[in-house]
Amino acid sequence: MRQYCLVCVDPILCLSMALAVPGLGRPIGDPPDNSPVGASTIVGMNDCFYLELDAMTGAATAVSGVGLAGFSLVISLAFDSEASTLYGLDGPSNLLITIDPTTGVGTAVGPVGLSFVADLAFDSQTGRLYGSTLDRLMTIDAATGAGTAVGPLGSSSVRGLAFDANSNTLYGTDTDIDHLITIDPETGAGTDVGALGFSDVEGLTFDSCTNTLYG
Asked: In this predicted structure, what is the pLDDT of residue 28?
């Protein structure tokens, strides 16, 4: 069985360090994202299970049961720290949802209306919710779920997104070449940073309190 782990990424030097995630054989954190439950905790998804991840060890604990109250495959997460709202994207229905971080219960917001969304990232300063359709950057209306294309990313497989509020930088992971990239939020254009040192980093999140990028 293929094993997955939480990794810590230096966005400047592009050096990565693995944190073990025992007992999980599917990708966690498609993607993980900042959690309102504590500075040392991030959240993620393993198919339809909502997880809390220890940021120091990578250990995962399931919070919700199967389906997130009717949503069968939540593949993306993003957290609005200003409004304390956790967003998710349900793959089969292409619905933007909000998730109760205590119970894992999901509530539909509305259809995104565009193609498959691989990941989400939220800029709490501007109130913008971003999404990656693998090859294009999009913005998503957090009130209705409606998506709007921004522009091409310059890659066909950008599966991770995270917004660094400290430096106003939007990051992505290009899983075709396993590199970290920065993304222009106005045009969608991606710029290569360097090799991650890990394959298939399919989710990203940024902890602004510790200035740490996780994948």
From this structure: 33
Nearest partner of 183 among 147, 154, 214, judged by Cα: 154
**What is d(CA 170, CA 185) in angstroms, rounded to the nearest whole number?**
7
Residue 157 burial (10 A CB sphere; 0-12, 13-18, 19+): middle
Name the CATH code of domain 6-214 (choices 2.60.40.1910, 3.40.800.10, 2.40.30.10, 2.120.10.30): 2.120.10.30
In whole angstroms, give the CA distance from residue 112 to residue 139.
10
The residues, ordered by sequence, that sit 6+ positions from 32 with a Cβ below 8 Å of its Cβ are 6, 42, 43, 44, 53, 77, 203, 204, 205, 214
**Within its chain, how far is the Cα of 38 from the centroid?**
18
Token pair 């219960």 in the structure block, residue: 105
pLDDT at 189: 97
pTM summary value: 0.76
Give the model's pLDDT for residue 53.
52
What are 151-161's pLDDT values in tens digits? 999 999 998 89
For the chain, the structural domain boundaries read: 6-214
Strands 119-123 and 106-111, sheet pairing:
unpaired
Phi/psi-derived region of residue 14, left when phi > 0, alpha when psi is between -120 and 50, beta in every other case: left
User: At residue 123, does pLDDT exceed 80?
Assistant: yes
Identify which has the larger pLDDT, 176 or 21.
Answer: 176
